[in-house]
Amino acid sequence: MTADNLPLLLEPDELEKNLGRDDLLVVDLSKPDTYARLHVPGAVHLDYARIIAMQKPVMGLVPDDATLAAVFSAIGIDAGMHVVACDDEGGGRAARLLWTLEVAGHNSFSLLNGGLHAWANEGHPLDSAPAMPVAKVFEVHRNPTPVADSSYIMEHLESDDCVLLDARSPDEYRGIKKFAERAGHIPGAVNFEWTEAMDQGRNLRLKPADELGKLLAERGITPDKEIIAYCQTHHRSAHTCLALQYLGFERVRGYAGSWSDWGNNPALPVEE
Predict the structure, then answer these.
(1) Against a cut of 0.70, is the pTM above it?
(2) Edge-to-edge strand order for the sheet containing 147-148?
(3) Residue 241 annotated to the active site
(4) Inter-axis angle of helices 209-217 and 236-246, to 10 degrees?
(5) Distance, CA of 214 to CA of 46 (rounded, Å)
(6) Beta partners for 198?
(7) What are the Cα distances from residue 52, in Å, to 37, 68, 101, 165, 166?
(8) Are strands 226-230 and 162-166 parallel, antiparallel or unpaired?
(9) Vertex 126, ends 121 and 127: CA angle to 5°?
(10) DSSP assignment, residue 55?
């Protein structure tokens, strides 16, 4: 998942050193008004809605190959480009972009650790002029490995080798807050709210690896298991997937559609 010695989790100092490279593209998924005020110099803006599909009531699905190819080509991604993703919310939208790129067969990417919070608050250069993308030709080579669907989860529901990680809030997990026809969680899932991975004292970077690994292990989330992460639409849980990959977890899948799929399907079991 890395190229040219750029790590999966990229620090702002390291990104600044590499700005201007022909084979590096910074993609900013911040809110449009945030991007219009400040962004990493040269960063192209990408509307989050362009990288998800919906079949109401199911949200957060992966678009078809033609859509992905068109979107990624238009913003300047091809096989030789290393993508650095960032946003203004702690990395959720940025991580979903990287997960989608992996599904599309593109593995050369990094998450800017702390995103725009770390970049702006720590004195790195900022720009307000929109960057005009240089279109490339992106070819999709669909990779099913990062993806779980409801059928896959049902097949592994009783497996001791698999852990379901619910990245939603505790109230959603317990069924107190309801954002689908049914409330609760997938049977056997453990709750690890996505923001628990963020270090609030270091501009929303991921917590140090040892601290984060301990928090996960306390819930039975360990690198020897296959982890399937979900939230409401695989937005928050995309961040969790990336955190797990950063820690060296090798078998990580994200559930596109997540609870908007599971919670709206009366044929699937629910636990509260």
Answers:
(1) yes
(2) 147-148, 252-255, 226-230, 162-166, 190-191
(3) no
(4) 110
(5) 34
(6) 206
(7) 25, 9, 12, 21, 20
(8) parallel
(9) 150
(10) E
What number of CA atoms fall less than 13 Å from residue 40's CA on the CB side?
Answer: 32
Question: Do 74 and 131 meet the contact criterion of CB atoms below 8 Å apart?
Answer: no
- R_g (Cα) of the chain, nearest Å: 18
- With vertex at residue 76, the alpha carbon angle to CA 71 and CA 77, rounded to the nearest 5 degrees, is 80
Q: What is the largest CA-CA distance in the chain?
A: 52
Catalytic residue among 86, 162, 231, 241: 231
pLDDT for 4: 60
For 208-249, how does the pLDDT look when each residue is reduced to its tens digit (9 = 90+)?
999 999 999 999 999 999 999 999 999 999 999 999 999 999
Tokens 């609760």, located at residue? 184
